[in-house]
Amino acid sequence: MEQDFIIYVIEMLGTFAFAISGIRHAAAKHFDWFGGYVCGIAVAIGGGTIRDVMLGTTPFWMTTPVYLICTAVALLTVAFFGRWMEPLKNAWFVFDTLGLALFTIAGIQKSLAFGHPFWVAIIMGCITGSAGGVIRDVLLNNEPVIFHREIYAVACVLGGIAYWAGIEAGLPIEMTAIASFTLTCLIRFLAVRYHIQLPILKGEEQIDGEG
Q: Minimal CA–CA distance to 125: which of 110, 138, 135?
């Protein structure tokens, strides 16, 4: 029961941090409250919704209003306390990373429960953790950051591979989940701390025959 409570708290903190991320980006573009809420909810539930639709099940947020309420609280927090939030950006980053790792594991476990092979589960875990940010960037007319800046989705994939390796090694589910969670967080923290990025593709500004 205590373990479930801890996971629930981390999930809510992650959801709140995801929502804060979307709303702060919307505020930077001077969106109104509704636009900010839409961007916040896109980050908070977007990845999990895509996963559930692809798995052919009811999207998780349709069974409880807690995610919508959490995003509303995030909206009010940014609206009324936004000017005091800048010094807390490191704390939001930590919550965001914890949520990323937890949602990745949740996506993997749910996919496996539906009988899908591990390679599908890893993809679903990555979608659960990172697709919401892509939706946010599309709504804001920005290039998705996971394609050209920080290691984000890659951390989900490597965490998913660690989960698969733990299962293949016969480790208990709890130990496997902890190892996957820790690795995903560690990769994300180290990538940001030391500015680690994937190699950049080199090419012409305009492809011949296009434009």
A: 110
In this predicted model, what pLDDT tens digit does every residue of 15-40 receive, in sequence order? 888 899 899 889 989 999 999 999 99
In 90-187, at which residue ranges do the beta strands (DSSP E only) sit? Answer: none
* Spatial separation of the C-alpha atoms in residues 106 and 96, rounded to whole Å: 15
* Assigned token pair, 100: 């990323």
Specify the DSSP element, H or E, that contains 115. none
Nearest Cα to 123, choosing from 50, 196, 182?
50
**pTM to 2 decimals?**
0.89
Instruction: Report the Cα–Cα distance between both ends of the chain, in Å, rounded.
Output: 59
List strand residue ranges (DSSP E) for the chain, in order: none
Tell me which H or E stretch contains 60: none
Amino acid at 77: T
Query: How far is C-alpha 37 from the geometric centre of its chain's CA atoms?
Result: 17
pLDDT higher than threshold 90 for residue 181: yes
Sign of CA dihedral 45, 50, 52, 53: positive
